[in-house]
Design brief:
The chain is globular, with a radius of gyration of 26 Å. It has 443 residues and is α+β, with helices and mostly antiparallel strands. The N and C termini lie far apart (67 Å). The protein contains eight helices and 23 strands. Strands 8, 9, 10, 13, 14, 15, 16, 17, 18, 19, 20 and 21 form a twelve-stranded mixed β-sheet that branches. The protein folds into three domains: 2-9 and 21-102, Carboxypeptidase-like, regulatory domain (Immunoglobulin-like), CATH 2.60.40; 110-193 and 402-441, Immunoglobulin-like; 202-398, 3-Layer(aba) Sandwich (Rossmann fold). The chain has helices spanning 2-9, 213-216, 221-231, 273-278, 289-302, 328-344, 360-369, 383-393; strands spanning 27-34, 45-48, 56-57, 63-68, 71-78, 85-91, 96-102, 110-114, 123-124, 130-140, 155-157, 172-173, 182-183, 188-193, 202-208, 238-244, 257-263, 312-318, 347-354, 373-377, 400-408, 420-429, 432-441.
């Protein structure tokens, strides 16, 4: 393709031939679009500022060939979830110029929940109609910094209405039937819980590579976010990075878990970039969530190459639910086995869910019972600040907001011990909205 372009640039009009019309002179430039870590960005649209010529699209190498009359050409480069870039290309007649372009990811505020450290349990009314509960929420801005200054009116618990089109319960799990509820609305009893000192950790990062990820994260924000996480490891931190998928269509070389790299510190982060970039072409298969957590937990507990005496945690990123545990009862039992094993090996669990298809109940229980936090991204723009906050959050080194909410099932006799209420808190952050899903156990 470049050879053809180079030939075109030499097709200078000399005025000869039968028509007497000059052949237009053309120059060429190869525009190469990469992200901030140097990974190629496929699917970027390149348009001349003048509106001349067709829009170009970058290939798997982040490249597109621009052919136009020689001179300075203004370009606009756009990619979903990246900030647009305006730049200039100079096209000559003596070869193919290269125009490097770096695009930056768009980020957005995000948040998550953790088990309240006050020890206050949910309170169910004697008639089984009302539930009052306390939560702790963490909210970060697009730069992964804690959002300060929020007030009770910024936190609202949403009402819930079952969706007949979804097979699983939307509002009330482990009950004879799903059931709508009304919310008490704005938070009460708001407190700010101070951050604790940050200490070094060994972290196992698990990345979901099942088939659905090709749709929920088409531009591989999870891989960029993973690079961000290992690039800001604090002194004494180390990381083991793995990816999981199995079954028909899975492309990972080892299944269910492929260990990609062990990163000793932030200075060694770049050694993980190539294995992470390779994951862009390795999505497929099922989601062996629980088996993969067990495999990474065993690795963290037994790997003698990891520094001893350092607290250990695991971060699990997924866009779905375990493919194999079976019924709701069987899944709950399997989940409890995972939690118990993590407690025995002193590995705290943190979960990051992307999209509305995650199993909120599962990810919340893994995290809150496992001593960690469940973080949630409605969109890929929220992934990067969530990953960026983890280094501090693993030590509870971010301030959190503690608050209480209440729900009303509308009639007596609905709530019973052993059920799980699925809820969503909407947070107003500087004109933007952050939704944080919850799973509240009924006692």
């Amino acid at each position: 393709m470049l050879a053809m372009a180079a030939t075109a640039t030499l097709a200078a009009g000399c005025g000869g031939g039968g028509s007497g019309t000059d052949v237009p002179q053309l120059g060429a430039a190869q525009v190469v679009v990469r992200d901030s870590f140097g990974a190629p960005v496929a699917g970027a649209t390149i348009q001349q500022a003048s509106g001349d010529g067709p829009a170009l699209t970058t290939d798997a190498n982040g490249a597109a060939l621009l052919v136009a009359p020689p001179g300075q050409v203004g370009l606009t480069i756009t990619v979903p979830t990246f900030s647009p870039v305006v730049t200039q290309a100079v096209l000559g007649l003596d070869g193919v110029a290269t125009v490097p372009v770096t695009v930056k990811r768009i980020t957005a505020p995000a948040g998550g929940s953790l088990a309240t450290r006050s020890g206050l349990a949910p309170v169910r009314s004697a008639d089984g109609r009302l539930l009052d509960f306390e939560v702790e929420l963490v909210v970060v801005d697009g730069n992964a910094q804690p959002v300060a200054g929020l007030v009770a009116a910024d936190f609202q618990l949403l009402a819930c209405q079952p969706n007949a089109a979804t097979p699983a319960a939307d509002c009330l799990r482990n009950a004879p039937a799903d059931h709508a509820y009304q919310s008490g609305g704005i938070a009460t009893g708001l407190q700010v819980v101070a951050a604790q000192p940050v200490v070094a950790h060994t972290v196992g990062l698990l990345i979901d590579q099942s088939g659905s990820i090709a749709n929920t994260d088409r531009l591989n924000a999870r891989l960029y976010a993973a690079k961000s996480l290992v690039s800001i490891l604090a002194v004494g931190d180390q990381a083991v990075i793995g990816a999981f998928a199995d079954g028909s269509g899975a492309l990972l070389p080892q299944q269910p878990l492929t260990v990609l790299a062990t990163v000793a510190d932030a200075a060694a982060a770049a050694q993980a970039f190539a294995p992470l970039d390779a994951l862009a072409a390795q999505s497929g298969g099922q989601t062996p969530l629980y088996a993969s957590i067990d495999a990474m937990r065993a690795r963290l507990a037994a790997d003698e190459a990891l520094r001893p005496g350092v607290p250990r945690a695991m971060v699990v990123f997924t866009d779905g639910a375990d493919s194999y545990c079976g019924t709701a009862v069987a899944c709950a039992q399997r989940r409890q086995q995972v939690i118990d094993a993590a407690r025995v090996d002193s590995v705290r669990l943190f979960t990051i869910g992307l999209s509305g298809d995650i199993d909120v109940e599962a990810l919340s229980q893994l995290a809150t019972a496992g001593g960690g936090a469940m973080l949630y991204a409605d969109t890929v723009e929220q992934l990067i600040p969530l990953y960026g906050s983890l280094g501090r959050l693993m030590s509870l080194g971010l301030p959190t907001y503690r608050m209480r909410f209440s729900i009303d099932m509308g009639e007596a006799g609905v709530l019973a011990a052993g059920q799980t209420v699925l809820a969503r808190v909407r947070v107003q952050v500087g004109g933007q909205t952050v939704d944080i899903p919850l799973a509240v156990g009924v006692l």
